[in-house]
Design brief:
The complex is a heterodimer of chains A (about 140) and B (about 110).
Chain A lengths: L5 E2 L3 E8 L3 H9 L1 H7 L2 E2 L8 E5 L9 E10 L3 E8 L2 E11 L4 E8 L15 H7 L1 H8 L1
Antiparallel strand pairs in A: 1-2, 2-8, 3-4, 4-5, 5-6, 6-7, 7-8
Chain B lengths: L6 H7 L1 H13 L2 E2 H5 L6 H13 L3 E6 L2 E6 L5 H27 L3
Antiparallel strand pairs in B: 1-3, 2-3
Classes of the chains: A alpha+beta (about 140), B alpha+beta (about 110).
Amino acid sequence: MTDGPMTTTRSLVIERELPHPLEKVWRALTQGPLIKEWLMDNDFQPVVGHRFTFRTTPMPNWNGVIDCEVQVIEPNKKISYSWGAFGLGSVVEWTLVATERGTLVRMEHSGFGPDQDAAYKGASYGWQKFIGNLERVVAGMN
Amino acid sequence: MLAISGEVFTALADPTRRALFERLSREGEMTVRLLTDNSGVSQPAVSKHLGVLKHARLVRARHKGRETHYSARPRGLAPLVDWMTFYSRFWHDRFDRLEDLLKRMDP
C-alpha cells in the first residue's frame, strides 16, 4: 500500500493503492449509504448536474453543510464534484486505476479553478513553483 | 474547525494577481509604474488588482511623494496554508475510513 500525499499551491493530492477490486472501490465512492460510512451523510447520485449536500455535525460558525454538484461521472474511472464550504468553492476529483494488487485511488482537492495563462508578463516561474516555496515562506513566518 | 476568509483565495484565483504577488515576493517593494512597465497590462488594471491584493492583506502599500510603493505580505498566505493543513488531515482520515469500509464490504 502506498500513501503519497503531494501538495501544490493550488491543490491537495492524495494517492493510495488499496488491495480491493476497482468495481468495489467504485461502489464505495458512488453509493450514498456507502459514502456515508466513510465520508459524510449525503444525498449523492452518480448523475452529472445532480446537486447534493454532505452533512455533518454543525459547529460554531458553520452549519455543517457542504454544497456540491456532480461535474463528471465516468463509470469505474472518474468522479468529480464541486465542494462548497465555508463560503469557498473548490472541486474534489476521484480517479481510479486498476493495478495488479488492487486499485490506485487518487483524490485531488483543488482550491482554485483551472489555471489560465496570466495576462501579466512579470511572472517568470509560475504559481506551481511559487507554491513549492510556500513551505519555506511559512517556516519563515514562525 | 476551519474558519477561513475566502478573500485570499478569491484574490489569488486570478492569475494576473498571482503574478503580481509573485513578483513583489521575489523583487521586493515596487511602484505601480514599475509593476506596469512591460507587463502587458494597463496601469489602471494593475492598480485595481493591487487593491484586491491589499484588501486580502496580501500586499501592503506605502505612500511616498506622488507614488505608492507596494510590497508582498507573506503572512497573508496563512489562510491558504490553514486550508491545505485542514484538508490534508481531513482526507487522510477519510481515506483510512474508506479502507476500513472496504474491508467490511462484500467483495
